[in-house]
Amino acid sequence: MPNDVIDQVRRYLDHVAETTEVPALQPVGRRSWHRRGAVMFAGVAAVVALSVGLPLWWLGQTPRDVAGGGVTAEPGGLGDCRGPSTVEEVVATASLPDGRHFEMAAIRPGPGAPYNGYVSRGPEGRLVGCNPIGGESHPVYWAGGGAFSISVVETLYSISGRVPPEAVTAEVTLEDGSVIATEVEVDGHFFEVWAGPGHDVSPGRPDPDLPDEAIRLRAFDAAGNVVFDVAPPVVYDEELLDTAPPIGE
Amino acid sequence: MKPVVSEEEFEAFVAEIEPRLVRALIGAYGAEVGREAARDAIAYAWETRERIASMNNPVGYLYRVGQSRSRAYRRARVLFPDVPASGMPEVDPRLPGALARLSHQQRAAVVLLYVEELSEREAAEAMGISRASVRKHAERGLARLRRAMGVSDAE
User: Fold this and answer.
1) What are the chain B neighbours of A198 within 8 Å (beta carbons)?
2) Which terminal CB of chain B, N or C, has fewer other CB atoms within 10 Å?
3) Are A182 and A191 contacting, i.e. CB atoms less than 8 angstroms apart?
4) If you compute the radius of gyration of chain B from its CA atoms, what whole number of angstroms results?
5) CA-based nearest distance A198→chain B, Å
6) ipTM score of complex
């Protein structure tokens, strides 16, 4: 047997790359890059117009119900969450080393808003991002489908990982003493988004993705007992992995 | 790496990095999703080519872009086509199944570190995790591949 498993993987992936067709936007000639850029720009502009304009129009037509839990939602801000929703409570806050303060609030769907989710709010109340969770998108989302979306404009942190399935809250402590807390979504998986383009925020990823500044990861069960308490880098044992099987794989 | 601003330079840049990028994303996400993600990443590279040009590890960065874009295409299961019955005798037919059974992180680490031969630092940047985690995932992933394909560690 050749080494080479690695060599085999390389040859196999080359073969797959050569034989898998790209269904759309196959570049044809040099000028296609310009054309693709224009198409993408037009697409982005249309999405922005729809995601901001429609909710704004909708808010103008309907009594608002967007306050609660100490968070005041702003017209347009929740547009990225597919429609006006009710902000229920602040579920996480983070003070970053550079002095910026962020909070993440749980939202629940209102009329015309199909998703539960979270909305992150940055300095001066600016919307940072929104990731719909649950609601109608739940099965697709957790199956790794395309229901997940995020519109983040600034690179911050993302935390994700796995803790014992009885945990209901995971909490990451940064070296400056600030804490990012998030609920454990399902079967011990947690993730929270404090990130911008290029960050992997895939649901159900089995391994921790913590900021370099993280010094502690703890998880609590419903009674408030600590059920997981480690200092990164987190190395899971197989038993834990077995009790919380990967989602979407 | 030289700045890539003109179309000619961009095409040369794509010719240089595309095979590695496609292979890495297919390795991580399977054939179709990886292909789509690579296409999106290269389209993004065109739009931001001046910034990309100044990077030391453009493949790693575009891998992360593809990783992010792949969310739109991800399937419940990662799919790898069978090894063709003829023409690839050097590839064990158990390989696609073995790859599919690795965790996403293990697949990505094996491909980036061993197949694409990125440094641990580059692979860690690409995956957004620590170097120690990359090493751990790659080692475990390779060990699982070897076991699945009946290759002992001594070989």
Assistant:
1) 61, 64-65, 67-68, 128
2) C
3) yes
4) 16
5) 5
6) 0.81
